């Protein structure tokens, strides 16, 4: 027997506003451009650190990730983009890969790697 999660129940579990960041290019009028990272869109999501068993499995598959973000299907960021929680803008996460959609195809798991910067504590 297959049990599926009702989409409304899944949406009720999304507890964070997640900003998807991307690089934008603004022409400088002299043939060059100013490159900046800007918020492309904001989606609802749920972020959690990986479990020890997930970390072991990922190591065997040679995939390194520190967190999983759940979002509605169609809202997932693409690998290489950066995301952050709106209420914790200093914590940046690089998108490693998107996991197959749920059985009901209403949500996607996104594997992330926390980006640490010099002088920052290594906490979740």
Question: How would you describe this protein?
Answer:
With 124 residues, the protein is mostly beta strands. It has a domain at 7-16 and 44-115. Helices cover 12% and strands 48% of the residues. It has helices at 7-12, 52-60; strands at residues 16-27, 33-49, 67-72, 82-85, 88-98, 107-115. A six-stranded antiparallel barrel has the order 1-2-3-6-5-4. A hairpin with a 5-residue loop joins β1 and β2 (33-49). The longest helix is centred in the middle third of the chain and has 9 residues, at 52-60. It is globular, with a radius of gyration of 16 Å. The N and C termini lie far apart (36 Å). The mean pLDDT is 84.
Give the topology string: H per helix, E per strand.
Answer: HEEHEEEE
Report the C-alpha radius of gyration, rounded: 16 Å
General shape? globular
Task: State the end-to-end CA separation.
Answer: 36 Å
Question: How are strands sequenced across the largest beta sheet?
Answer: 1-2-3-6-5-4
- Quantity of strands, as a count: 6
Helix-residue proportion: 10-25%
Oligomer: single chain
Query: Number of helical runs?
Result: 2
Structural class: mainly beta
- Global mean pLDDT: 84
The largest β sheet comes out as: 6 strands, antiparallel, barrel
Poorly predicted runs are: none
Tell me the strand percentage band.
over 45%
Considering the chains and any ligands shown, give keywords for the structure.
124 residues, six-stranded antiparallel barrel, 6 strands, globular, mainly beta
Give the topology.
Blueprint lengths: L6 H6 L3 E12 L5 E17 L2 H9 L6 E6 L9 E4 L2 E11 L8 E9 L9
Antiparallel strand pairs: 1-2, 1-4, 2-3, 3-6, 4-5, 5-6
